[in-house]
Amino acid sequence: xxxxxxxxxxxxxxxxxxxxxxxxxxxxxxxxxxxxxxxxxxxxxxxxxxxxxxxxxxxxxxxxxxxxxxxxxxxxxxxxxxxxxxxxxxxxxxxxxxxxxxxxxxxxxxxxxxxxxxxxxxxxxxxxxxxxxxxxxxxxxxxxxxxxxxxxxxxxxxxxxxxxxxxxxxxxxxxxxxxxxxxxxxxxxxxxxxxxxxxxxxxxxxxxxxxxxxxxxxxxxxxxxxxxxxxxxxxxxxxxxxxxxxxxxxxxxxxxxxxxxxxxxxxxxxxxxxxxxxxxxxxxxxxxxxxxxxxxxxxxxxxxxxxxxxxxxxxxxxxxxxxxxxxxxxxxxxxxxxxxxxxxxxxxxxxxxxxxxxxxxxxxxxxxxxxxxxxxxxxxxxxxxxxxxxxxxxxxxxxxxxxxxxxxxxxxxxxxxxxxxxxxxxxxxxxxxxxxxxxxxxxxxxxxxxxxxxxxxxxxxxxxxxxxxxxxxxx
Amino acid sequence: xxxxxxxxxxxxxxxxxxxxxxxxxxxxxxxxxxxxxxxxxxxxxxxxxxxxxxxxxxxxxxxxxxxxxxxxxxxxxxxxxxxxxxxxxxxxxxxxxxxxxxxxxxxxxxxxxxxxxxxxxxxxxxxxxxxxxxxxxxxxxxxxxxxxxxxxxxxxxxxxxxxxxxxxxxxxxxxxxxxxxxxxxxxxxxxxxxxxxxxxxxxxxxxxxxxxxxxxxxxxxxxxxxxxxxxxxxxxxxxxxxxxxxxxxxxxxxxxxxxxxxxxxxxxxxxxxxxxxxxxxxxxxxxxxxxxxxxxxxxxxxxxxxxxxxxxxxxxxxxxxxxxxxxxxxxxxxxxxxxxxxxxxxxxxxxxxxxxxxxxxxxxxxxxxxxxxxxxxxxxxxxxxxxxxxxxxxxxxxxxxxxxxxxxxxxxxxxxxxxxxxxxxxxxxxxxxxxxxxxxxxxxxxxxxxxxxxxxxxxxxxxxxxxxxxxxxxx
Lengths: 475, 475
Hints:
The structure is a homodimer. By secondary structure, chain A is α+β, with helices and mostly antiparallel strands. The first copy, chain A, is built from 14 helices and 23 strands. In chain A, the strands form five sheets. In chain A, strands 3-7-8-14-11-10-9-22-23-21-20 form an eleven-stranded mixed sheet, sandwiched between helices. A five-stranded mixed sheet of chain A has the order 16-15-17-18-19, sandwiched between helices. β5 (93-98) of chain A pairs antiparallel with β5 of chain B.
């Protein structure tokens, strides 16, 4: 049993250490004996399950079908698309021994599955009737990373990867943009995180894609986190893999492709957007426990009896509620569920029962709300909705106040130091983008969809510029 | 587009070929470029999702929590429990290169995760308050198999593995037996498969377990298929891994362990228990599509209009329904959804609409039932329940008629030739068990829970015997 009353590092003292402390002490994860391969503990995995549950239902409504592709890719197949290989080769894990025998064509543990989907699509797509194909898989992928951090950069992480094929370029690009909107909605509805959306620059786009779109979240320390991407591939991969179909016009055509994914990075975003010096603060709809009931003087029989009655009322409403009747002190329990970021604490003591008046304590701002038993379920449902809105608005305010329009390189650097996005005009020259990165370690996070210019000169070279870019330090 | 009207091999001509034909033509799976690593296509994966959905809800009600453990196990950690290593070592896949560098302690791709769970439990269990621990994970595992068959024996397959820790031996054994009951219920409720349940012999039990329990299903060809197992470990692994806890009595104790799992083998069981010469026959509650609507003369506008109306009625009831309005002929569609084993076909043609009288065709026996629009949803819900019962009873009758009480080795061998279980008395000597295997290639599938003796002499050596065993050829 870990002692929950150990204090965690303050965010202002050492944000990185605070993050690690929260990951461990809120029991989201643990380290395994292999660097970068983390254990997703029940509390952390349950957050991922809620994200899966939300997205999977939405995917299915869009006609997406789940599949499961092999864990391994033969090296020879992996090498088929050159640009893609170059992007991933330095960080692959390779299996070379099977049943103690050398494997002739070594097996790459999938870092992403584009080539597997393309190889399969080449076999099953032959007629216009076979299109569109909208496949997705939930799985783990492996990237042999040198520097790893829980949820943010791992040698293994969990994700979903959608790979889709369409008869026309328009449909494929539309798919990439439609799923980006869905990811954005996931932020609004479930994670209480406002994202910045936009297109990636040539330098930042996915290996092999023609266009990459991304959602970016701004962390409490002012650094950006790429939280999800969608890609439009044109027909490049399809040509490489010999995918074609006979149209209604009886002609052979090559289909157009998109792909998209989000990962357990979203858990990292949840921690760093909402957390505070007492630990996690979870938005209600993604929280594994929405309400924790803490009995006071639980040795008195009427207390546990009433606590169980209130538990049943909330559980029957479909709320995720936990009654902690362990022999820890109430003080220990307060600290424990604060650390775990449970949105509402419901206290049940003898006096509360006598007065039919219970305290609901909000994790996000510590405020107390009172309720009687009769209105308990309604009041809690409303309070969860209120907390979600408050958390979203707070994060939105933080985001808006950290997007700074800049016109000079000095101003870009100042934003880099203070945290947030430098919204700058850019001529489109990769050298200017590279200069910003070299001087300030800030990367082009995206070309936001709102491209209203605030200047007409490139922030770097001063030449004519009509592109709006968000630069930031990033995870 | 594959031609669905290709005939498949008859079961009586070549059962193995029939099985492969069905796997491919019902689009359950496809082969990848690596032997034994199959692609779970949407129709096959969706069956697995229904199984997951059923079990996961039941697990959660029992207080089981989902986690995700790393994909890889360092060889040094894997070697910690000798018996376990010996059981798995010949069939592991090992990664030896990461980012093009040699990995000093090679990484075994998990064939099962006992050692990972134990390693983690050693860190997080220290007090009586930390027990019980009931963790489960849904994942894929890798076993480098020489002979592979889709769903039955793969180099990679999907499964769930539960690993639990308790303060007492009784609780741990109870857990193994309780989950076995749950697996049995999965058969009755979802798969329409009756299982034979029992304990495994010493020879057949899991590497490292004290007791192994299993559910066995009987395939159409008379061979048995182990469909799930649960294990009681005692405190053996816990001692090896240094897991202990401080009790309420302030003494250090070692906890007791169980584990349990079912895999995508269950899909193989579904195919071979229920399938027929026209393809798959799926029980209604696990079927990805429960009702397929086939429009007749769909160019007439009233046909598709009505087909969509009926679709909406059924979809709004939460039924899994598909309307196939593609430009294939009705005959093609009939064959397609027969191959895919869809429980009910609903035909919608001009005359049906005019008469408000629709044909429902049952996949399991080809019989037709008629309904008007008003009673459609009710009639279909009832018909699905009827089909489930019919399929379960048919499989149960087949099972019962293939359990043959035997008293001599010749009779054992005869059952082996004809298919089914030879229910025999056994003295408990492993040599007798081995003799049956050597002579007839039949293994002890289990010591069934009903141990009522029909003789008092061992079927092999003739000595005094009080154990009832089911011998069979097995997948």
